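Interim report, section 4.2 (structural modelling).
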Amino acid sequence: MKQSQLFTKTQKQAPKDEVSRNAQLLIRAGFINKEMAGAYSYLPLGLSVLNKISNIIREEMNAVGGQEVFMTVLQPKETWEKTGRWSDKVVDNWFKTSLKNGGELGLGFTHEESLAKIMKNYIYSYKDLPVFIYQIQEKFRNEERAKSGLMRGREFFMKDLYSFSLTKEEHELFYEKMKDVYMKVFDRLGMKEKTYVTISSGGSFSKYSYEFQTLSEAGEDTIYIIDKNKKIAVNKQDFNDEIIADFNLNLNKKDLVQEKSIEVGDIYSLGFKYSEAFNLTYKDKDGKDQFVFMGSYGMSPSRLMGAIVELNNDENGIIWPEAMAPFKIHLISLGQNEEAQKIYEELEKNNIEVLYDDREISAGEKFADSDLIGIPYRIVVSKKSLENGGAEIKKRNEKESRIVKIKDIAKELK
Amino acid sequence: MKQSQLFTKTQKQAPKDEVSRNAQLLIRAGFINKEMAGAYSYLPLGLSVLNKISNIIREEMNAVGGQEVFMTVLQPKETWEKTGRWSDKVVDNWFKTSLKNGGELGLGFTHEESLAKIMKNYIYSYKDLPVFIYQIQEKFRNEERAKSGLMRGREFFMKDLYSFSLTKEEHELFYEKMKDVYMKVFDRLGMKEKTYVTISSGGSFSKYSYEFQTLSEAGEDTIYIIDKNKKIAVNKQDFNDEIIADFNLNLNKKDLVQEKSIEVGDIYSLGFKYSEAFNLTYKDKDGKDQFVFMGSYGMSPSRLMGAIVELNNDENGIIWPEAMAPFKIHLISLGQNEEAQKIYEELEKNNIEVLYDDREISAGEKFADSDLIGIPYRIVVSKKSLENGGAEIKKRNEKESRIVKIKDIAKELK
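Predicted structure of the assembly:
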């Protein structure tokens, strides 16, 4: 795409009320627009990144047999009364509204109830299980405070997968598998090195659940690192002697290292809570009714986008890993539009994603914008580079550039 | 995909309160689930259709230079007070809610205000125009009645494009172009023959606007057909002598043919209404501030999905046109799973989308399901078909099948 066509421009300043680093950079670089605290619109560059993150997650969910759906935001009160979660005393972050012709509604902050109800139409026999269902869509949470940019939204994107299994044993096989699937996603997003499987409190059914926590000073959580090699940690707020005993943790409390971290995913064993509430049963081989065993697996593409920016930036801007960068190459012409145009066409012909800065502004402005936006490779075509035999290529996270012959660029970057 | 893996099953009956034909069929065939009147969840088959329709629209919006964004559902009151549209007396179908820490919010039923506000960050000079921006996402309208299935939703998908032009003249060139773009989309969706460009009242800025109306008994609108060849009509509720004069319509009122129709799109000249409210201006060549001239262009992928079902069904079920069918081929094995499996693998290898009915149920049930789901091509592998030299191929909308050699199937259907 030609940058002269892209409607967004970079900005020197983020809005004064924006305190988070990820949102400041993403707003200044033109990826998102702040509508209010905790609610951001995605502009072309930002939507591209969000879609790439979502598609990585989607591929991994499909690979374990996940079937994709899209449930409604509008949730009737009656559905949530079945589990007691309609009450504002039980769930303190509902957005609620009402129908013109009567009836109270909430905006989905999660979808266990909604899906358990749907599955009553489709689960009858043991032959129908296990089944894994997910969606990627917006959720709404009426947060009192929302100061972490994309990392704590009132309106945000979520991938929520729900598993429906015959037995606790069958569930546990899938639950363990999902730990690896999640780590594979974090690996593809370039976050694996800093991400810990973290023991935390279990919610209503089981004693423990697992979170995935990525080390970052921008995080709202604190973890104790148990095993740096195996990437195992415990959430500080849930840490106690019982955990040490239950997990056979061989540690000296005095030696524990404490780190700030971002929660980038969580997986829960839900047991029979929702299947009992909605009478979601199947007939076993003996024709007897049994409750379905459920699990849920959350991961927010928009929070991940914020976390990736927190992990990958310097004083000049964002440094996108290639997997979710809006473009692979930032092609910059310094008064050499004819040569640059040739390179641009050659890259497009080879299906290499390129943003071509064809604007009539100064070299300094172009370099500053390029560093702020953070595309992985920068190619500069200038009088000097042509005299040196081609174009200058530099990675965003490296200082030194090198000259590549124009005819070799597409081949080299493919 | 193997049908034994697909979690949805067909149902004999739709919910009793569902009166629309499109929703009845889509629910029974397992494409959608009814959460309440006007709000449906999309199950795997339905999400696939919705995505295919959305992608056709997306391609055509990109082809005219549209840049895709994703704006927030949550809309602060302050934004909408600028145009007076926060008032329930002006807009009678808001869903409203409020923030825990104070502040009223509405759920976006459209996004003119939101985008005009965003564009203030990006439009400065005449060089920044024209620009065309769109999104595909859910909208929320608190409809008193919602009885037309996917065709009138309280929560529904919308493609809304907004144009920002230098002048009325520049706007009108794009506005006229969009009429053709819309007809191209309807052509790709197999609806062009029945779709009329329809003159209707213009909203707040211009005297007239255009709707796109598709003939169907299931429609909520009525149009007068002005020119059957040129596909021009007038919305009955806006028809009067002034229209006859303004458009030079050469007609005899007594001869007018009246038809029921579904509104499948609308395009508006917004003029300066929103740019004045948000002081959205640009500097012209003389350095003088000028208001931006806006237009909006709506089209709902979910309503289109409902309309397509209304236009394409028979007593046995849906008949999907190929462009948005969830699969191209429904492969049915009647006790010949070994041969069918070979065909399945061959089709998948050739990237031909196939649903393979490998379930152990009767031939009658398989055929009934196949007709209800409505995939364009049906391939049956049975003892009889193999004796006759291959598999039976039949289109969903044809009665007669023919035998094709197994080795030729992929080649023939590619």
